[in-house]
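Bench notes, afternoon.
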Amino acid sequence: NIGTVLCFGVASAGGILLGNVMGEGNLGKAKEYASKLLKLTVVTGAVGGLVVLGITPFVLKFASLNETAMHYLKYMLLINTYYIMGTAVNTTLVCDTIDMWCYAVPLGFIAAFVFKLPVLVVYFLLCTDEFVKWPWVLKRYKSGLWAKNITRDHLFEDEEKE
């Protein structure tokens, strides 16, 4: 969670900023801000991953776990160093359900129960779900279809015409 705090903060602040700009009807400015926000998100994701990587030795030093649990903790923290970047981008550009039920859950099930892969390999594979979303997330971002006037300025004009 320490590594993702900044990422979620950027995502929340970015959502508010983009909402305000789109509410003003300035879609060009919203697209410009979204471009900067996407770059900032990748950077904060990398920083978050580095934070996790940096605190891993301290966590392992002070964790009082048996040898097996320490082994799992070490590698799960290492896996989270890359997972944070995927999560950061996808939190900023919301996207989840289809990926989870069509990719992550079946992959985890097959990896664990069909191929009987080790726990760490299953965990690693499950953490790839954030990156599987990127092509669709980036395609949607680049299309600009998300930039719409979300205000209700003309809400009652259609009723007056009737």
